[in-house]
Amino acid sequence: MPVVSLVLGFLSAAPLFLAVGVNPILAYRQVLGVFVNVDGLTESFTRAIPLLLASIGLCLPFKMNFWNIGAEGQLFMGAFAATAIVFMLPDSSAFVLLGSMMIAGFIFGGIWGLIPAYLKARLETNEVLTTLMLNFVAILWVDYLVYGPWRDPEGFGFPLTPMFPLNARLPWIPGTRIHAGLIVGLVCAVLVYIFLARTRWGYELKVTGESRLAAKYAGIDYLKLTLLVMFIGGGLAGLAGMGLVSGIVLRLRHGISPGYGFSAIIIAWLARLNPLAAVPVSILFGGLLVAGDALQIGLGLAFATTSVFQALILLFVVGAEVLTRYKVALTWE
Amino acid sequence: MDVAFFVSLLAHTVQAGTPLLLGTVGEIYAERSGVLNLGVEGMMAMGALTAFATSFYTGNIGLALALAMIAAALLSLVHAFLSITMRANQIVSGLAITILGLGLSGFLGKPMIGMTALHLSSFSIPILADIPVVGPILFSQDILVYTSIFAALVLWFVLFKTRLGLNVRSVGENPAMADSLGLNVYLIRYVCVLVGGAMAGLAGAYLSLLYTPLWIEGMTAGKGWIVIALTIFATWNPLRAIFGAYLFGGVIALQFRLQAIGIGTEAPQFLLMLPYLTTIVALVLISLEAVRRRMGVPAALGLPYVRGES
Amino acid sequence: MKGIVKRFPGVDANDHVDFELQAGEAHGLLGENGAGKTTLMNVLYGILRPDEGEIYIRGEKVDIGSPREALNLGIGMVHQHFKLVEPHTVLENILLGLKEPAFILNVKDAANKVLEISKRYELPIDPEARIWQLSMGERQRVEILKALYRGAKILVLDEPTSVLTPPETRELFRFIAQMAREGRSVVFITHKLDEVMAVSDRVTVLRAGRNVDTLDREQLEKTKLASMMVGREVLFTLSKSPVVPGEPVLQLNQVTVMGDKGFPAVKNLTLAIRKGEILGVAGIAGNGQRELTEAIAGMRPILSGQVRLSGKEIHRESISRRIEDGIAYVPEDRVGVAAPQGLTVAQDLILRRYRQKPFSNGVFLNQNEIDNNAETLIKEFKIMVSGKDAPARTLSGGNLQKLILARELSGKPRLIVAVYPTRGLDVGATEYIRSLLLKQREARSAVLMVSEDLDEILSLSDRIAVMYGGEIVGTFPASEANVEEIGLMMGGSLRKT
Questions:
Q1: Residue A287 lies in a domain
Q2: Which of B201, C62, C67, C495 could covalently link to B180 via disulfide, CB atoms 3.0 to 4.6 Å apart?
Q3: What pTM value is reported for the model?
């Protein structure tokens, strides 16, 4: 069923291509072409890494109905923290440096997630809005740094830091841009899956997702749970940010993430909050991103095409999900 | 800083606040009827694009505004369909619409990047516009500014003093009861969401026809999200929305004006952060009073309605 | 109504039911939970469409597609759960859904009309008051006024006395009699025998979706009605073995608890329950019982006073600590709180105990133990379910309550707080739940039971406390119970401490 809606969503973009004077068949060929050649495929994996980490991170808060729309900001904060480490310890060994970058990225992303978590748990402040607003604050904070104190003096005035030294670069598979972040992502997917399915917190998440009163009744501490889950979730998004600066872009710059945090929301939803399912979905979305580039170069379409695809797929999946829910309700009776 | 600065600041405030006010009034209606609409940003983007494109190709401003409202309303129709009839998760549906709207406006707008189109012009109310200080601010604006305030007042009246408004409020508080009394919950919600969409489209049109001289990607710059925040800040009351819209508009304007006179050019980003931080502070303040604001949040907000389930 | 059939998946709620209502009569509709009474009236009120059957109003065949159409035909209904908008005023609630005034709400005329009706039927109300400020009895008046404002000639009341004090109930009966005298008709859905006998001109009994019989006033007799309702001989008393109570398990001293409406729901309450005793808390719902039990369980903080469990002060303890201390809590809301519907039966069975060994070691859950626990409890408590992994929402009310009790009792609790434990359950489930509570008493646990069913309180309790207005207005051993006096206490007219 989800595959059907995926395909439908995909195909529904056809009339749009016609509207801008592009032959849809050409467009689809470009997109599919991404997946059938090695370069396209590996590039899809590369782009999938931040998506994977961020979306896994979202599975946790979403499970308890904590609507974390702030993955983008948490990602930026992680990228910022990792870059700060590079500035602070430029001469350390790769092992120490990369390790610290990961830890810093996780912690700062986690802290960025703790703020809305605390506000919600203590004051019932709407988390959709707080996480959202914090996105912009984080993005602007990074902007300040790359336009200002951290700007590369040899960067021709562009808002970016100097390139990272080699020891700050995550190891990669030669011939591709796939970096070690992929392994981290896959490991995290498994860890988070186990967390959800086997630990007491996974159980608490399930109960809280059903009803907060029931969770209270069960003796669950909402504050502790929210803080824990948002720290981990934000931390994983922060790791995604670290991966971006250290594995692909190799510096911090304006717009380091073109909306990965928002795409991650869609991926988590499509994966039905299952971290293992998030793996193939992330790769698919990574492919869509690559396709977006191809469409831009090959057919002169806006990069925004990717967003259109993503949104259409999501809409169809949401619609299909409702239909399956009906079927399930009927068959049970 | 002198009077001229002050005047231009206020004039800019009004202009910055108008799209916020238009969007917020619409969103108040949607949320009062119980539907959470997170797609405002996308609807505004589509409105902006449609208005610009129409003006670009036809030069007819009136048509541009109308089509902008229709385009955004169509987008909101999708959200309405998913949320009301299909009873999908309203947060996800709204986000999908936002991404779709933003994506579509970027996608369809690509050919027009950098171009300019015919604009809304301001007109001055004679005599009144000549009053020093106040004149240029209040009486020398474009039609949408006046429309936005008028709309807010009218919609306030409708919401609280007429049967239509009573129906909308009841549907948002206790849809089961409204249904049992013969109100068509689904229809009322649909209409309110469409109103919200149309207003968002109008807000977007304002942005592309007046606020920014040419078409760029990312025209809405997060204003749609601020609208959602404003709706809560105004406790779902169109009158308070006027106050809130100009407050937030003022923050945005302040940041621009300070930059224009050279303050804060080293780190303009912190000023840019102000609207977002202000929103967070406002949200915290509101939630402190949340208990006392029992009468604020529509009780059925975000919950799909199914007849027969109690 | 002739031959009404209404089918739901798995059950025929109405199986060829006939129902006849005459003008100017008060007609009682009697039956257990699930007998089909509310379903039948929902069909009449247009909320449900019958699968088969016909409805005739004053001789003409009608098709009622919605409550609005029912109202147009002069049929009004007051449901068990009021359909009122809390932040709005009484007037706004009454005017909702009407055609007049069409555009601008003309408040004065409407308010006058409301006051006129309210005076005529002696149902005092303030049109400008907001619903959340009103008591349950007053809210019911608003619901009735809503129907009368629309000129209802047939009024259906669904379990109306469940939220009323005895004096309010008498008022309601007076009102019903007045309606009947005027030539209007009232249908009175209930499962309470005394009431239906007091007020009805005729009584129709439904059982398991079918007609049993319709009796005239002269033929009414309590035991006859009861056996018609249930289909077998009903015993009104349960056998209780004598148990000597031990030292106090729970002691409440001058406890004050804040309610949801901004004022204390429980005021300076002092109470003690001993080992091996069942304390039945009687009183009309809404007099602080819920808040009291929530405070004991830890769901609600107390403003002042002491709460001691076997001598230990617990009022600051978290809920998880109280669970460890051995407090079992069976709340009023089963599906929303006690047994979340989206979880499986096995998961719900460890809801309050998942932290304890052997179910978890602090980090990981032991699925094996959880499954074993589920299977054991399902068998022991005879919970009818397709399997331990079935979602909780597939359980019927009775089985869900069995699940909740199975979980709460399996931890060998010291204190059991049960709130309306048999509400809405059929006789079979009710008897079983009651026997479970009695067994706990024999096992020397203390039981605090809040119930609206006086028969239940009288037959199960060792001691009885009556609550009114957040205070205990009477405590006495069950053997000294006097139903008259209890009724007066429940209505606030008597104190016996």
A1: yes
A2: C67
A3: 0.80
B residues 70-89 lying closer than 8 A (beta carbon) to A: 78, 82, 86-89
- Cβ-Cβ pairs closer than 8 A, A with B, add up to 141
List C272's β-bridge partners, or say none. Answer: C251
The H or E element that residue C146 is part of is: helix C136-149
Number of domains forming the structure of chain A:
1
Total domains present in chain C: 2
Rounded Cα gap, residues C406 and C410, in angstroms: 6
- Is the peptide bond preceding residue B175 cis, with omega within 30 degrees of 0? no
Residue A302 lies in a domain: no
**ipTM exceeding the 0.85 mark:** no
Interface test with B, best of C66, C80, C91, C96 (most B CBs within 10 A): C96
Please, which residues have CB within 8 angstroms of residue A206's CB and are 6 or more apart in sequence? A63, C342, C343, C347
C435 to C232, C402, C414, C431: CA distances (angstroms):
19, 12, 17, 6
Among candidates B166, B179, B308 on the partner chain, residue whose Cβ is nearest the Cβ of C105: B166
Query: Residue C432: which of C388, C392, C396, C381 has the closest Cα?
Result: C381
Domain assignment present for A34: no
- When the candidates are 1.20.140, 2.60.98, 3.30.2420, 1.10.3470, the CATH number that belongs to B3-295 is 1.10.3470
Q: Is C280 helix (H, G, I), strand (E, B) or coil?
A: strand
Per-residue pLDDT of chain C (497 residues; tens, 9 = 90+): 877 888 776 567 788 888 888 888 899 988 765 677 888 888 888 888 888 888 888 888 888 888 888 888 889 999 877 778 877 888 888 888 777 666 676 677 778 888 888 888 888 888 888 887 787 788 888 999 988 888 888 999 988 876 677 788 888 999 999 888 888 899 988 867 778 888 889 998 887 778 888 888 888 777 677 667 665 444 445 566 777 878 899 999 999 998 876 678 899 999 999 999 999 998 876 778 999 999 999 999 999 999 999 989 998 899 999 999 999 999 988 888 999 988 999 999 999 989 888 888 888 999 999 999 999 999 998 888 888 888 888 888 888 999 999 999 988 899 999 999 988 777 778 888 999 999 999 888 999 999 877 778 888 999 999 988 788 988 988 888 777 677 677 766 667 76
- Looking at the fold, whether C177 and C283 belong to one and the same domain comes out as no
Instruction: State whether residue A332 sits within 8 Å of chain C by CB.
Output: yes
Domain layout of chain B by residue ranges: 3-295
Rounded CA-CA distance C192/C476 in Å is: 25
Same domain, C187 and C330: no
The answer to whether residues B138 and B145 touch, using CB atoms and an 8 Å cutoff, is no
